[in-house]
Design goal:
The chain has about 150 residues and is mainly beta. Helix content is about 10%, strand content about 50%. A hairpin with a 7-residue loop joins strand 1 and strand 2. The chain is globular, with a radius of gyration of 18 Å.
Length: about 150
Amino acid sequence: MMKKALALTAALMSSNLLAEVTVVDPYVRAVPPGQPNSAAFMVLKNNDAAVSLVSASSSVAKVVELHTHTHKDGVMQMRKIDKVDVAAKGEAALAPGGNHVMLIGLTQQLKEGQQVDLTLKFSDGSSQQLTAPVRSVMKMGMSGGHKHKH
């Protein structure tokens, strides 16, 4: 019993040394049947020292990676990134068309209204478990009326 109390005390003390990141409005994109991938979006608000989101995991995907979008030769491309920095007392938006958490190899269909588990891991060793609702999100370029001239 004493060992458990000491371990709990040590865990609580070490958690005070970790950055305090608040996850705001997390959600996962609903996808049609057969679609193998989806993405999670949120805002990370940092109430303490600078930290980076370095990885994520979820039971609904075989692989979870951090991704961003880049424009190259007039084409939007998605690529894997190593981290998403969250400045001290700042925030980082993970949003469609920008940085996001990519869910690759979905193990189930994601329908609007479901809940998805996510675990976020940060550069300071901390992690956060959260549940994000599945939402229907219009794909980029499908907003109608917007044309790009080259």
